[in-house]
Amino acid sequence: MKRYLVAWFIGLPILLVMLPAALVYFFSSPPGSEGLPQVSAPNNPAVHQSAIEVKVYRTAKQAVETMPLETYIEGVVAAEMPAEFELEALKAQAMAARTYIIRRLDAKKFDDVPKGAQVTDTVKHQVFLDEAQRKQNWGDQFEWKNTRIRQAVQATAGVVLTYGGKPIDATFFSTSNGFTENANEYFEEPVPYLKSVASPWDIQSPSFEKTVKIAAADLEQRLGIKLTKEASGNGSWYRIVERTTGNRVGKISIGGKEFSGREFREKLGLQSSAFTLELRGNEVHITTKGYGHGVGMSQWGANGMAKAGKSAEQIVKYFYQGIALENCDLILKG
């Protein structure tokens, strides 16, 4: 009898420890899939095998290549975000890239690409690198980088970002000036989920601040103005008329003309519309903060959030306000 009691007192604590662990093991989501819509696929329930194919115009070859959706997403993530970034940031990028192409397929408007294609492999849409190009670019680092990209894509396979049941305009850019931008303050049209949010992590980006020098005569030619040196009340030769919610230049007055921050940036080829000017002799020194249009997801911000322990879902829901995560097959069937 004592033998059974000893066995019972030894076995009970072990049972109490093992039972919860077993329940967690059998009923938890697959690793890396926390919060993401789950879809079934043969042999591996964590990987979605969609029948969707994408027709990509390969610019260098001047030919259309058809490939599975997730193969296309791997090539986009590999081209658009450094493989060294945190895995959760890469997952966020994969969802944004997948949403972009699903939005195009859902709209069925391909008049901006050669006949027979649905998207190009350039910055006009999304940059895409096939496996051969990745091997050439990455050299002896190809295996680990490619594996990392594939892991991020497969962990989010089939997941797109939606607002009101439709794929969002999942814009993204490299580096903010510390804030993202309201869509209407750069692209003119308001978008409910593209609102300005703080992104302090971007200060780690090598593109956070940059100063370029432009000859005053060159600046005059590009802007179609004549610089004046008469001093205003504060001695300035230009004036910031308006600032945006994201602390970029909304409007600038210079040489008797007024430009939007976007116009000024694009005419001078600047990294950002967050800038300051300094006239030194016959040169204009322009210091920019950030890299890109500033609307949507900051890639360096996403990486900073991932380093701080945020999940891919938390990242995309931060940069794209009020969105949901859905299965891409259901979107195209809807």
TrEMBL record:
Protein's UniProt name: Stage II sporulation protein D
Cellular component terms per the entry's GO annotation: outer membrane-bounded periplasmic space
Domain of life from the UniProt record: Bacteria
Residue ranges occupied by any Sporulation stage II protein D amidase enhancer LytB N-terminal domain in the UniProt entry: 58-163
GO BP term, example: sporulation resulting in formation of a cellular spore
Species for this entry: Brevibacillus borstelensis AK1
